[in-house]
Amino acid sequence: MTQSPIPEPDDSLEDAAVDWLVLLNSGQASAAQRMAYQQWRLTSPAHAAAADEAQQLWADLGMTAAASELRAQAQVPRRPRRWWPALAASVLVAVAGVTGWQQWPALSADYHTSVGQQQTLTLDDGSTVTLNSASALSVAYTASERKVILRAGEALFEPAPDRQRPFVVSAGDERLQGTDSSFSVRRDGGDLTVVVRSGQVQFSGDHQPMLLQADQRLQHRAGQPLLAQQKVDAASLTAWQRGKLIFNGRPLGEVIGELERYQHGRIVISDAQLAALPVSGVFDLNDPQGLLRTLEQRYPLKVTYLPWLAVLH
Fold this sequence. Notes:
Layout (H helix, E strand, L loop, with lengths): L12 H12 L6 H11 L3 H18 L2 H6 L13 H20 L7 E2 L6 E4 L5 E4 L4 E6 L4 E13 L8 E5 L2 E15 L2 E15 L1 E7 L2 E6 L8 E2 L2 H4 L6 E8 H9 L5 E4 L2 H4 L2 E7 L3 H11 L4 E4 L2 E4 L1
Helix pairs in contact: 1-3
């Protein structure tokens, strides 16, 4: 067994430090290897700084939901070397569990999309619905009402005119009725976000009804008081329908939260200061990895790729 990880010629000190932590947390490190790590760490101030940064990164990974699921099974390395078969199996088990939980509404839905997929539907009355990534929808039209049920995810609704039968979107205990309108509804568990692109939308439920206008957004959490509508650029917020993500000074944490919806695996930001970094740009949903590459080129950050995990630091 070698005394230390052998970095490739182009490895940085940061890469080598992460490789050391992989070995030390693998359960296979010998006393000699642990002593070799301490000697490596004392080689120079730069080595010590890289070791400290790697230890902080490791601690941050331990606070993520994905890491919590994997902690009892395996440590998460930066580079899948001799441990990669066991690690890959552990990650796949965790991801499969999360994926199954996320997609269970699809079992009872008329239409659904997988992660990264979008679908445009034309309903019987001519109304158009565009399902976003990992979304599920059912249709329950009657003689008196055109009702659709958003079971999970997000959809953009463009109802066909019909004064006799209102178009209603049901999302949990909430109802949204659109008239000559175009609007999106996003459902994340008990959280609901409505963005009105045109027209008006009546928002009702176990609270005072509220009328939303074009270029307004309402965010609501079940059991919480309604918040005031926000003035927004609805065209930008619904640009996903056109295959784009548009951000204007949005915190990096929010940007990554959006990106995660369109790809499998997790993306973790190493610290709160980096998560607050303002980000602007137009990104292509057909190339989610390209967004990470662009961020790495434009902003003071680095992306480390692991199996089913990318870390921004």
